[in-house]
Structure to design on (267 residues):
């Protein structure tokens, strides 16, 4: 009888799985403990689907709202005109083709400012956003699996990346506010937005990485990947995440030199 009583008093209560709202809050308040708790239970699809859907809808809406600002519209048109002029000077298209393309810019912008344009913008952002999200998650998973020997699955990478999106939403909202205040499209919360430098310069690229919210989000992502892969040390995951952030950005930066339409991804 006494032995049974001792066993019952020594048993620890079973830990309950956190709700999605608790996980969302935990990402901001105690990410390490939150991801440790998540790792103890089967993967829940809502933990990555919901935040990813929200952030890409938010991005689409912010882009559509930005087109209501006259200064943003003029700046966007000017960049496209400069791109066509450059292509003409390089012999990649004729002046007649460039004039036709420039003429179509106004019609396209007017269409995108209407309700159908808003829907197309949001839906296309969702589709291409998810494709990009899956590809990046796949790269993380392969590197973690074969280099860091992590124990987690591809779904664990999706969860870590998805939940971290809640932090990135702050950046999207601040970027939207700054876009209206500054009269130019602001993609992030980096130092590069407040220093006048030549567009597409290497200095602007590196200044774009001095971004407190991005650094915060990637730090939490590194912690999440480490905890969900049951790693004892998070250092290797920090190195992996920040190396991919810098090198991936550099890749798009140089590709944008060759293919100007990729300029939006170069940061």
């Amino acid at each position: 009888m006494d032995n049974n009583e001792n066993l019952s008093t020594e048993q620890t209560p079973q830990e309950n799985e956190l709700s999605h709202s608790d996980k969302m809050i935990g990402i901001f308040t105690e990410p390490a403990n939150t991801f440790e708790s998540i790792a103890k239970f089967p993967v829940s699809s809502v933990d990555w689907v919901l935040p990813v859907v929200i952030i890409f809808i938010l991005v689409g809406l912010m882009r559509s709202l930005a087109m209501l600002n006259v200064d943003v519209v003029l700046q966007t048109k000017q960049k496209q005109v400069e791109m066509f002029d450059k292509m003409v000077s390089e012999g990649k298209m004729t002046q007649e083709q460039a004039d036709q393309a420039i003429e179509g810019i106004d019609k396209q912008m007017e269409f995108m400012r209407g309700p159908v344009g808003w829907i197309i913008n949001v839906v296309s952002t969702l589709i291409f956003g998810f494709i990009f999200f899956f590809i990046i998650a796949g790269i993380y998973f392969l590197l973690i699996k074969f280099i860091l020997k992590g124990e987690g699955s591809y779904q664990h990478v999706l969860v870590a990346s998805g939940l971290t999106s809640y932090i990135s939403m702050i950046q999207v909202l601040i970027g939207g506010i700054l876009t209206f205040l500054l009269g130019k499209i602001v993609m992030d919360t980096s130092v590069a937005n407040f220093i006048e430098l030549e567009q597409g310069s290497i200095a602007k690229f590196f200044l774009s990485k001095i971004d407190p919210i991005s650094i915060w989000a990637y730090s939490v992502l590194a912690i999440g990947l480490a905890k969900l892969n049951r790693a004892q040390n998070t250092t290797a995951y920090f190195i992996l995440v920040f190396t991919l952030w810098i090198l991936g950005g550099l890749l798009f930066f140089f590709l944008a030199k060759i293919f100007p339409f990729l300029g939006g991804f170069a940061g």
